[in-house]
Design brief:
The complex is a heterodimer. By secondary structure, chain A is of the alpha/beta class. Chain A contains nine helices and ten strands. The chains are: A alpha/beta, B mainly alpha.
Chain lengths: ~240, ~375
């Protein structure tokens, strides 16, 4: 379980996160939905221990992201569509690099590589250098390196950005399989369809604050809207 | 510790596949031995030119005495030809022998072009021969007249050159330690940029930092990779220097430059702290840059920093002394310069250099770990 309690984060004069609290349960996909610049990525970066919150706490399975950063990192797999790869390394070398950083033995990593290549259907690209990979291929490498240590929970930042329809559907399939394995999944996105298709719970974030939090039906009931998009607009306001 | 090794091996593997890095680490270092080899071969050629080569010398007029002296000095006498393309020619006064016998000044005319080095050099060679002959004739005349030739030498100037034979040509070779210092700063440059600013520009820093390893392990893994590449450049250069005696004609190395393996290896070891210092400095600067280009632009200036004292060293050639030896790069250059000239350097001065450079390197490395503790370092 991942619990975020009243976290704040400012960069200079810019307040990226003013007050965000939510709970993401195991076996569920929690969607962080919000316009660009709402504070979704900053929230995920605090959870993944890249940033330290100025105030409030973020906990993964009860472990504090600031104080027990290393333990938290072991439990999390972080996938960011914007994350870069090393163009001169092959897909397999990426998996091995991150696996070794997680302390896994090469023998174990050989097996993990086969399993991940099966799951992500990347046998054809596993020994190619990633320079020149398509967006979808890069994302597969990205996911493979994030999952190499079989993390308990997975954070995904805009996971379908830049993917075509087929790759997007495949991505959704992967996320659902994570959920079915009992993991706790947080997906940040600004794409409405994504939320409708994937998320069990939706946390709407705007201007660094949580505007609403609940299941799809709860949000519709609360706003009296007929679609999630209408509910979103009525909660966040046209101006956002 | 294991994580440090994982980061190090990844950076080595990754950067060994980068053409730019390889060029700087493997090809650029060959510049020093190649240039030095050329200088040595040129020097040998120059010496042969000056002393040994038969010199074609067109002569107008005749004088048995002069001709004999010139032939003995290695000149090949040829008939005078106005249109000929010669470095130097000699015109002998038609009444030269008569005047000589009469004891009146006889005339010899040396024709050359002082604007051309080859011509001036050949002329001075002929002039030296003729002056030698003149002085012999003068001495004989004095003796014939019962006068001691000593009257023409009211005093004697004794010269004692205190430079060891090795030191005399040292100026020519001052460039060797200089290029080694530059290599310590150039060898790992691209690796320093790629592993920090490059990582940031590619957006791969964040993913790396979500792995459960300490930031110090990542920082030092990268630092050591940069250092190893800088040192690789030095080793390539040193290997080139040591192999020069095996490639060049033996006489070319008849110069006051000590290029034996022991000296070169000692220099390599002396430069280890300096490569660490350079790598830490570059990593620190590159980690503060937003991207590859910004880092490259800034680091171009950083590479210039050790150049200033280096220039001073070449021009002033200061003796090693404690007041100078705490300055990193400068002190290493002075020591290697002395070693190459086969002049011993007091152990305590070498120790001072190593300690001082190591301390500065540690300070910079501490700066790097602090930089890696700052979350802004990893954000795109």
């Amino acid at each position: 379980m991942i619990a975020v309690d009243r976290i704040t984060k400012t960069f200079g004069a810019t307040c990226a996160v003013a007050d965000v609290s939510f709970v993401a349960r195991d076996g569920e996909v929690t969607g962080l939905l919000g316009p660009n610049g709402a504070g979704k990525t900053t929230t995920l970066r605090i959870l993944s221990t890249i940033l330290r919150a100025d105030g409030g706490t973020a906990k993964v399975d009860g472990l504090d992201c600031a104080r027990d950063a290393t333990a938290v990192r072991r439990r999390l797999g972080v996938v960011s569509a914007g994350a870069g790869l090393y163009p001169r390394l092959t897909a397999r070398e990426h998996v091995f690099y991150y696996g070794r950083l997680h302390g896994l033995a090469d023998r174990v990593l050989d097996e993990r590589c086969v399993k991940l290549a099966d799951e992500l259907q990347m046998h054809d690209i596993i020994d190619r250098r990633v320079a020149g990979f398509s967006q979808g291929e890069k994302l597969k490498v990205n996911i493979a390196r994030a999952l190499v240590h079989d993390p308990r929970h997975v954070l995904l930042d805009e996971p379908t950005n830049g993917l075509d329809v087929i790759a997007t559907r495949a991505m959704r399939g992967i996320i659902k399989s994570f959920r079915d394995q009992g993991r706790c999944i947080i997906v940040s996105t600004h794409v409405m369809q994504e939320v409708v298709a994937l998320c069990d719970r939706i946390v709407i974030v705007a201007k660094g604050r949580v505007a609403a939090d609940g299941t799809r039906d709860e949000l519709l009931a609360r706003t009296g809207a007929s679609t999630v998009e209408d509910a979103f607009v009525s909660l966040v306001g046209e101006g956002s | 510790m294991k994580a440090l090794f994982v980061v190090l091996t990844k950076e080595l593997r990754d950067n060994l596949r980068d053409r730019r890095t390889l060029f700087v680490a493997m090809l650029l270092p060959l510049f020093t031995p190649l240039t030095l080899g050329l200088v040595l071969v040129w020097n040998l050629h120059h010496q042969i030119e000056r002393y040994d080569r038969p010199l074609a010398l067109p002569v107008e007029g005749a004088s048995e005495l002069v001709e004999k002296a010139l032939v003995e000095a290695g000149c090949v006498l040829e008939p005078f030809d106005d249109g000929g393309d010669h470095e130097v020619a000699l015109r002998i006064d038609p009444s030269f022998d008569e005047k000589l016998r009469a004891g009146v000044p006889a005339e010899l005319e040396l024709i050359f072009d002082s604007g051309q080095q080859d011509s001036a050099r050949a002329a001075s060679r002929v002039r030296a021969t003729l002056e030698g002959l003149g002085s012999v004739i003068g001495t004989v005349r004095l003796i014939e007249r019962g006068v001691s030739p000593r009257v023409l030498t009211p005093f004697a100037i004794a010269e004692r050159d205190t430079a060891t034979p090795e030191a005399r040509m040292a100026f020519l070779f001052a460039g060797v330690p200089f290029t080694l210092i530059m290599l310590a700063f150039m060898g790992g440059l691209y690796v320093a940029i790629d592993t920090t600013a490059g990582e940031r520009e590619r957006n791969s820093f964040e993913a790396l930092m979500t792995s459960p390893v300490s930031r110090a392990s990542v920082a030092f893994g990268k630092l050591f990779a940069v250092t190893l590449f800088a040192w690789l450049a030095l080793v390539v250069s040193a290997a080139g220097l040591v192999s020069l005696p095996h490639v060049l004609p033996a006489r070319a190395l008849d110069v006051p430059l000590k290029l034996d393996p022991a000296t070169v290896i000692a220099s390599l070891v002396l430069l280890v702290p300096l490569t660490c210092l350079a790598s830490a400095l570059q990593t620190l600067v590159a980690a503060s840059a937003k991207g590859f280009k910004e880092a490259q632009a800034t680091l171009t200036y950083v590479v210039l920093v050790p150049m200033l004292p280096a220039m001073v060293q070449i021009l002033v050639q200061p003796e090693p002394r404690a007041a100078l030896m705490w300055i990193p790069a400068f002190s290493e250059q002075i020591i290697i310069d002395q070693w190459l000239r086969n002049q011993p350097v007091p152990v305590e001065l070498v120790a001072l250099t190593v300690v001082s450079t190591t301390l500065v390197a540690l300070l910079l490395a501490w700066g790097v770990t602090r930089r890696y503790g700052d979350e802004r370092t990893f954000l795109p």
